[in-house]
Amino acid sequence: GAGVSQSPRYKVAKRGQDVALRCDPISGHVSLFWYQQALGQGPEFLTYFQNEAQLDKSGLPSDRFFAERPEGSVSTLKIQRTQQEDSAVYLCASSLAGQQLNTEAFFGQGTRLTVV
Amino acid sequence: DAKTTQPPSMDCAEGRAANLPCNHSTISGNEYVYWYRQIHSQGPQYIIHGLKNNETNEMASLIITEDRKSSTLILPHATLRDTAVYYCIAKGWGLGGDDKIIFGKGTRLHILP
């Protein structure tokens, strides 16, 4: 596909359940970002990859959140033992290059996670 | 990255120009001004960016003041589809720059029929 693809689009999890959210970035894009967006708020940065290297995970709210991008393309955001406060839209974005070039980021449509 | 300040909401009549202001008084020399927008239930979408000079593309124009402390995004002929939250971001690049985009609260633009 031409854009960033995220799956599933919607996920309902029972409190305490583990979830895995997938992001397929644009082919060839080096940088990949995850954001969390609560209702009515702007997106909040979670973590950033350059190829397979996780260069910044300063935004991950707790050690229940884990992200990986083992082959430098597809990424998975995993949330263990989900809590109600984890309910949000999780956005993935990719961009062509890292720090050396001035490029735009392309966002997916997000995964809406509801923890009940 | 420099902090930006935007009005929380604005209205604009359909067909008129929408002018969205942004203050970034602490912007540093290597920081670009970026604009993204987020239409309801979609991910943010890149609009335009600039450093010092005014920029124009098929979506919008970006006017940056000479001292770079503020900018204005102009949608020349707003349509109902331009109703969205618009984010102004000051972002550094190059060595020492930070790749992540930090979103503020943005401006919720309502286009009125």
Which features does this protein show?
heterodimer; A: 116 residues; four-stranded antiparallel sheet; B: 113 residues; mainly beta; five-stranded mixed sheet
Structure description:
The complex is a heterodimer of chains A (116) and B (113). By secondary structure, chain A is mostly beta strands. Helix content of chain A is 0%, strand content 48%. In chain A, the strands form 2 sheets. In chain A, strands 2, 4, 5, 6, 9, 10 and 11 form a 7-stranded mixed sheet that branches. Chain A has a 4-stranded antiparallel sheet with strand order 1-3-8-7, with no helix packed on it. The model of chain A has no long low-confidence stretch (mean pLDDT 93). By secondary structure, chain B is mainly β. Helix content of chain B is 0%, strand content 46%. Chain B is built from no helices and 9 strands. The interface between A and B is medium-sized, with 29 and 24 residues.
Tell how many strands the DSSP assignment of chain A holds.
11
| Helix/strand structural class of chain B | mainly beta
List low-pLDDT spans of chain B. Answer: none
Q: How do the SSEs of chain B run, as a string of H and E?
A: EEEEEEEEE
Helix content of chain A: under 10%
The overall pLDDT of chain A, averaged over residues, is 93
Number of helices of chain B: 0
> What shape does the CA trace of chain A take?
globular
**What is the oligomer described by this structure?**
heterodimer
Chain pair with largest interface: A-B, 29 and 24 residues
**Major sheet characteristics of chain B:** 5 strands, mixed
> Average pLDDT value of chain B?
92
How many beta-strand segments of chain B?
9
* Spatial separation of the terminal alpha carbons of chain A: 33 Å
Strand % of chain B is: over 45%
SS class of chain A: mainly beta
Cα radius of gyration of chain B in angstroms: 14 Å
Percent strand of chain A equals: over 45%
Regions with little confidence, pLDDT below 50 for 5+ residues of chain A: none
